[in-house]
Amino acid sequence: MNLKGKNLISISDYTKEEYLEILRLAEEFEQNPKQEILKDKVVASIFFEPSTRTRLSFESAASMLGAKVIGFANPSATSQSKGESLHDTIKMMSSYVDIIVMRHSIEGAARYAAEVATVPFINAGDGANQHPTQCMLDLYSILKTQGTLENLNITLVGDLKYGRTVHSLVQAMCNFNATFHLVSPTELKLPSSVKMHIKEANLKYEQYTNLEDVIPFSDIIYMTRIQRERFSDPLEYEKVKDSYILDAAMLRGCKETMRILHPLPRVNEIATDVDTTPYAYYFQQARNGVYVRQALMAAILGVK
Amino acid sequence: MTKQNKKELVVSAIENGTVIDHIPVDTVLMVLSILGLDKYEDEVLIGNNLDSKKYGKKGIIKARNKFFEQKDINKIALVAPNATLIVIRDYEVVEKKFVEIPNKIEKILKCINPNCITNKEIIDTKFKVVDEKPLKIQCVYCEKTMTNIRFSE
Description:
The complex is a heterodimer. The longest helix of chain A has 19 residues, at 282-300. By secondary structure, chain A is α/β, with parallel strands linked by helices. Chain A is 35% helix and 14% strand. In chain A, strand 3, helix 4 and strand 4 form a beta-alpha-beta unit. Chain B is mainly beta. Chain B has a 5-stranded antiparallel beta sheet with strand order 2-3-1-4-5, covered by helices on one side. Chain B has a 4-stranded antiparallel beta sheet with strand order 6-8-9-10, with no helix packed on it. The interface between A and B is medium-sized, with 17 and 17 residues.
C-alpha cells in the first residue's frame, strides 16, 4: 500500500485498509521508535492555536526519526498577526519544508491549507471540525488493549454533542462492527448526523444517562471532558459539568480486559484513584500518539 | 397589431438560442449572473412577473445564439429548480432540457458556519450535495451539513 503524498485532513480521507496500514506501522515504531529515516527531511509544525500535547507529540515523533522541525507554537509570533492570509503563510511554508503539520482554530482551515500547499499536509486539528491523528491514536490504543478492532462494545461518555474526538471515533469504528453505548446528559447527546454513520453501517447503538449501567459489558470506556468553552450559558454548564465522574469503586464487576481511554486533558471526570487500576490506559494512550504520528509522517513521506 | 400579437412581443421568438422558462420571479437576476448572461454580448431578453398557469408568476430569459451544457444548467438548480431550457434552432424548438441538482455546488452559496474558513478568507465555497429532497449540503471545508441554503452576496 502506498500512502506517499496522501494528505490527512479528515478521518474519512483514509480507507479501513489505510488505517490498518498506519496502525501496523505504528506497531513497528513502538518496537523501534528511534530510527534516522527522516534525517534529510524538514517538518513544519505550525500551530495557530496552542495545543501543547499534540504539538509536542508531533515534534517528538519527527525528532525521533531524525527530521528537523521548524514552525511556531503561537500565532502572535508570526506574520498572521500582521494580517497575512493563511493562503500566503502556507504558500511560503511549502517552499521551506517536506511536510506540513498544522493546527488552526478555524474549521475548514486544514482542507483549504492542504489545497494551497505544494507539499503533503497533516491536519493536527481545525477548530471544532476534525482531529484525525487523535482518532488514529485512539484506534491504535483500542487495538493494543483488545488485540482486535472488530466486534467490540465501545462506551462513549460525557460530551457526545460537541466532542469532535467522539464523532471521529464513532465514524472510524463503524468500519469494525462495533456496538456503541452512548452515555451523556440529555443536553449533550450524540448529534443525529453522527448517529447516521452508525445507521448507515447497520450497527447498533444504545443511549444511557447512567454510566454504571454499561460498565459490566464495556470493552472500552472512552471518557471525555465536558468543555466549559462550548457553553454560551454558564448555568447550563454548571448543570451538567459533574454529570459523570468515574471512580475506582464503580469498576468492580467490569471485564478484566476493559480499558479506559480519554483524549486528555481531564478535569475531574476520572477520579485519580482510577489511575493505579489496571483499567487506566489514558497515559499510554497519549504515548501511542507518538508512534501513530511517526507512522503517518513516514508513510506520507514515502520512507515506509 | 392584434392583442394576441402584442402578447407575443413580450416573449418574442428568437432564431437560434435558448429560452429559459419557469424561473421564479425573485431569482431572474441571479440566474442571469450564474449563467454568465449578465456579461453576454449578444442579445438577451428578460421578462419577469409574466403570468404562468403552473406558478402564478414567472420569469423568462431568452439568449440569442447561446447554448448550454447540462452541467452549466445544473448550476441554477438551487435558484430555479423548475426551470425549463428550450433550445431553439431556426425558430423551431429542437430540445427541452431540465435542471438537475448537481453533486457539487461551487461559488454561489455561503457556509452557515461563521467559523468556517470560507467566511474568514476570500475563498470560493464548495459544497457536496448529501441529499436532494429535502436538500441537504455539506461544506467541503468545515464539513458542516446544512439544510438552509444561503447565497453568497
